Amino acid sequence: MREFLEQSIQPYFNYWVYVILMMIGLWATIAKNNLIKKLIGMSIFQTAIILFYVSVGVKKDSKIPIIPHQVEEHHAAEDGNHAGGHGEHGAKRVTEKHVIEPDKFANPLPHVLMLTAIVVGVSTLGVALAVVQMLFKEFGTLEEDEILAQIKTADSASLDV
Amino acid sequence: MKWIALIAVTLTGSLLLVGVGDFPEWGDAHSAANEGPKLESGEQIATAVSQSFLTDTDELTQVPNVVTAVLADYRGYDTMFETVVIFAAGLAIFAILRVFGGDEVKPMRAPEDDTFCEGDHSRIIIGTTCKLLIPIIQLFALYVIAHGHHSPGGGFQGGVIMGASFILLAIARDLKSALDWFSEKTFMRLASVGILIYAGFGVLCQFFERNFLDYGALKTVMFSSEQMARSYAMLGVEIGVAFTVTAIMFAIYANLSSRGELKQGL
Prior knowledge:
By secondary structure, chain A is an all-alpha fold. Chain A has a single domain (1-59, 107-161), classed as Helix Hairpins. Helix content of chain A is 73%, strand content 0%. Chain A is built from seven helices and no strands. Chain A has helices spanning 2-9, 13-31, 35-56, 70-79, 86-95, 108-139, 144-160. In chain A, helix 2 (13-31) runs antiparallel to helix 3. By secondary structure, chain B is an all-alpha fold. Chain B has a domain at 66-100 and 124-261. Helix content of chain B is 66%, strand content 0%. Chain B contains eleven helices and no strands. Chain B has helices spanning 2-20, 32-35, 49-61, 66-74, 76-97, 124-146, 155-172, 175-181, 184-207, 219-222, 226-257. The mean pLDDT of chain B is 85. The chains are: A mainly alpha, B mainly alpha. At the A-B interface, helix 2, helix 5 and helix 6 of A face helix 1, helix 2, helix 3, helix 4 and helix 5 of B.
């Protein structure tokens, strides 16, 4: 048991959590009857995917992918005034390019992808809530089976006429 | 139904958990996602694109925040259409919910409760706190937008904070006083202007015989080196994104909370 915990769960803990969260979300979207609960499930599903992407981009002992201008500080010590003339600094930087070790900074790509995914997730959730609100206005309920029953009776009524 | 769902969920979950074993260990800097695909022997086949993002961004764009540089420059198209998606979501909510004038539905609250008045003691604390907080929130939002390429931040985040400040006003007082500050006409216009700013930067680059969204072309307009032109153009693009996100976040709240009537909030 201990061996299993140390070898299969500890190094992959984030991935286990992402699978479990994702399945909770999937369960809610499939099995729940209330439309709002389905949407909550959808949100949990999405959060799980965000967790997965961010976990992939992690590097041990790394910093956030913001790389300060190291050369600029170096020059600031030399010539005191560097308020203007960013262009000159650009020229200087090309000549004495300092080496950046990518292993010291977290992978920026998953962060970029998830940054936009979060905002787009919010707007799709907004659209979904708008649709649910219209359904409530129309049927007076948010339970899926009640809405389906109402549609069925309305259909058979219109066929009879 | 629930049994079928349970079977489907456990089956998918266990398959995914079996796959977890093949993932790189947490925090592995040399995994395929971080460094590029490798052969069984450890020989590298290709370099992951994120490596060159990290090493070249400073030289090419002079933007310290690599995430912003990738977002606004390397993946400019992606971000532009992401903004269009948010705009489209705002339009969709407008199309689904918005109703105009006409039949008065019974108010959700008694009319005398509607506005913040002096005698209403229950709202004095909330009203005063919001009066103090909202300017600070908005200032912070502007900082996050404007400083997005030097510190964590950018158009999306700042836009959401800015939109949240208006939503706070709408919750604390009522939707009407928030709409006095930020009317429907204004926020729908602001949303379109945001995308036009973004696309405008792209088209401007084409006037200098470069590709769409190749910001380096703007060096003659910005009076700076090609690298700094990219940096400035990224700031401009982020401001466009922030406009759209601010407007649409508030539009979503305003329409949802008032059932599309934009008269009374919650």
